Amino acid sequence: MARVGWRTAGQNVAVSTEYSGTGDPRRSIELLWGVRERPRRGPRPRLTVPGIARAAVEVADAEGLGGLSMRRVAERLDVAAMSLYTYVPGKAELLDIMVDTVLGEQQRPSRVPGGWRGRLEQIARQEWALYRRHPWLLQVATHRPPMGPNVIAKYDYELRAVEGLGLSDVEMDSVVALISGYVHGAARGAVEAAQAERRSGMTDEQWWSAQAPLLAEVVDPERYPIAARVGAAAGRAYNAPAAPEHAFEFGLQRVLDGIDVLIRRRAAAGDGS
């Protein structure tokens, strides 16, 4: 398990890369879909699986994924740690439920203006916002995703954005994966920028103002003419070393341009031209 230093919400914590789908698959499915039969007798349970998941999300939001543990979740719920295991067998299954829980926050309007492009833009911006609210999601490897109701609903909604455009089923899946992968990378850069500001106590503008005069002393613009020209233009535009929001929007439009080429090619092939 890879670990690096990461300060979140004013605290130093260790960030770990966690992997979804590493727990007991049957228990995860039961918990995600609520199919396990509940006791019919006895007192009403004090806790619920959704409530535990929401508390776990709050811990991860505040302390980072490295600060998440069954003990910390129990403390937030003001219960003994062992009592959680009555509902959730362990951290691996808890992580699956957490991922599915936050995906349920996304809005999925039935009508979005702008055709397929507008629909994919809406999906991308929803996911961008989700990562900004829950940056710990970037440390969850979902090669084997938790197949919960919100994961399935998200996938189905995204596929409907490109349904009926002449793409094959595999191409539809690839387009959805392309958008998701792009947003994941862009969001990582944005989250890292925000964390750098918290860690250093300096805004990007302050950092750039301090660095620019020093660079002017040591960098010869005649030796690096293109870097000097473009870097100066970008620095004036961003007043910072980078602009995550601008990079996200610029890159998203270029990804959509590429998808547009694919759709046009499939349409042309369907016309026999």
UniProtKB/TrEMBL annotation:
Residues 69-88 bind DNA. One of its GO terms (biological process) is negative regulation of DNA-templated transcription. Residues 46-106 form the HTH tetR-type domain. It comes from Micromonospora pattaloongensis. Keywords: DNA-binding, Transcription, Transcription regulation. One of its GO terms (molecular function) is transcription cis-regulatory region binding. It holds the Pfam family TetR_N. This is Transcriptional regulator, TetR family.
